[in-house]
Amino acid sequence: MDGLKQQLQELWPVVIDVGLNVLWALLALLVTWFAAKLVSRAVNRLSERGIDETLVPVLETLAVWGTYMVGGLVVLDIFGANTTSLVALLGAAGIAVGLALKDTLQSIAAGFVLLGLRPFRVGETIQFGSIIGTVRKIGLFTTELDTPDGLRISAPNDKVWGETLTNFTRNASRRIEIIASIAYGDDIETGMNVLRTLVASDPRILTDPEPSYAVRALADSSVNLHLRAWASTEDYWDVYWDLMKQLKPALEAKGLTIPFPQRELHIVNQSEKKPLETALHE
Transmembrane ranges (predicted)? Predict the structure, then answer.
């Protein structure tokens, strides 16, 4: 019994020390968790102070994971771990992981390039490859878009950056192009006047740059008149649809015809043709 008491007396300081370390570690983890929540909320509020919404998700991710890493190092230091050696070990492990996750790291690198160059921002409509959508979020790994038919797409950043990007909403105005086809027997200038009247009746069409009118082509079955006009990006589709809706009745009101594709056929009566030999004898 005396030996057992002596062993317990020797172990008791160790138990107390380990127990205190565990309590301190739990407290550090709890503080880290609260700190991460506060950091996340603080970063999300940056958008209210004029920071571009494109940067907020990435800054939030970096800040939260940075907070967790600091908390983890504090916990290891409480237990007496050699954090310097651990950091070196993590660096070596990071190289190995980087080689294994090459494609993922490419997405991260592409994400930073997109955030730095900013070819698009949250809320803008873009196209890369065959995908068209409105940007909802740019993360470290993926870019999220909503397509016009209501689908949510998550595309790897390197795939987005690797394609030719078209931004439909970055500029303040866009050009509308409309082809009006009239018959060869119709008067071209009358058709031009119809297009000018449609443009003049719509105040959403910009006067600078000025609209332009031209004969686009003398096609197989029609004379194609070409209208180019500018509208604000927000009004682009509404103006385009309204012009297309008004074009047909406006042409018909002036007696112009929108021709269908036509082809002339010449039928030769074979019975009236003379055989070649008979024709040669004659």
Answer: 12-35, 55-76, 82-101
**With b meaning 16 or more CB within 10 Å and e meaning fewer, what string describes 14-40?**
eeeeeeeeeeebeebeeebeebbeebb
* pLDDT tens digit sequence for 74-101: 777 776 666 666 666 666 666 655 555 5
- pTM recorded for the entire structure: 0.62
Whether 149 and 155 have beta carbons less than 8 Å apart is answered as no
For residues 261 and 247, what is the distance between their CA atoms, to the nearest angstrom?
19
CA angle 58, 60, 66 (to 5 degrees): 100
User: For residue 116, what are the contacts with CB-CB under 8 A and spacing of at least 6?
Assistant: none
Domains detected in the chain: 8-100 (1.10.287.1260), 119-167 (2.30.30.60), 173-253 (3.30.70.100)
pLDDT digits (tens, 9 = 90+) for 124-168: 999 998 899 999 988 878 899 999 999 999 999 988 988 899 999
The helix or strand, by DSSP H or E, that contains position 227, with its residue range, turns out to be strand 223-232
Query: What are the pLDDT digits (tens) for 206-216?
Result: 999 999 999 99
pLDDT at 272 over 70: no
User: Which residue type occupies 193?
Assistant: N
Q: Is 102 exposed, middle or buried (0-12, 13-18, 19+ CB in 10 A)?
A: exposed
Task: Cis check for the bond before 209: say yes or no (omega within 30 of 0).
Answer: yes
Residues listed for the chain: 282
